[in-house]
Specification:
Elements lengths: L7 H5 L12 H8 L3 H13 L4 E5 L2 E5 L5 H21 L1 H11 L4 E5 L1 H4 L8 E6 L4 H10 L4 E6 L1 H9 L3 H8 L1 E5 L1 H8 L6
Parallel strand pairs: 4-5
Antiparallel strand pairs: 1-2, 3-4, 3-6
Helix pairs in contact: 2-3, 4-5, 4-10, 8-10
Length: 196
């Protein structure tokens, strides 16, 4: 994979909202802001490396991830880490709050206006805290935080069930999220690889 440009990470971000999606090069170029020719070259390289599959649909190739391969989970974990690092780099106050929230549980999944990049001075920080939550620590963090926190709690098993049932909030989180902490757990949940 050494000959594949690092822009491949940006190209795969749309697959973090739907790992089973089938997308054209145009779809991926538009979503990532990567030029069309560069996108086509990178996608061809990923397909040659067997990291992406495609099927022909008329004149277009529909690219998809192979859900059966372990490499797919690794790719999605890399892309999720990229999203987390980009968020931390551009959101100082919210980044500190996310780091504090990680001290209360193993995985924090950010969603809502902060995850979509639309937060303003009146936005709260919408988060899903996965696993056992240290409630007293959470309350301390919320009291001193300059950003209001709207937290939801779930075990990984409960969140996996809610995703399978396409519960409204779980569906919203799948479509627009940034993961922190145990990112591989979040990827498995979004790929529906959790054992009930």
């Amino acid at each position: 994979m050494s000959n594949i440009h690092q822009k491949w990470v940006k190209l795969l971000v749309p697959f973090t909202t739907d790992a089973a999606a089938k997308l054209t090069a145009s779809d991926l170029a538009r979503a990532s802001g990567v030029p069309q020719q560069t996108t086509a070259r990178i996608l061809d390289g990923l397909a040659r490396e067997n990291l992406l599959r495609y099927e022909r649909h008329g004149r277009n190739r529909l690219y998809t991830l192979d859900q059966e391969r372990e490499e797919t989970s690794l790719l999605l974990s890399i892309v999720e880490h990229h999203k987390a690092l980009a968020f931390l780099a551009r959101n100082d106050d919210a980044s500190l709050l996310v780091r504090d929230l990680l001290s209360t549980c193993g995985t924090v999944i950010l969603f809502g206006s902060y995850a979509s990049g639309l937060a303003d001075g009146h936005s709260d920080l919408d988060v899903l805290l996965l696993g056992n939550v240290a409630e007293s620590r959470l309350e301390e963090i919320k009291k001193r935080s300059p950003i209001p926190v709207n937290e939801h709690h779930a075990t990984p098993e409960t969140f996996a069930r809610l995703l399978r049932e396409q519960q409204a909030l779980a569906h919203e989180i799948r479509k627009n999220h940034i993961c922190f902490g145990d990112i591989s757990l979040a990827v498995r949940l979004f790929q529906d690889r959790m054992v009930p």
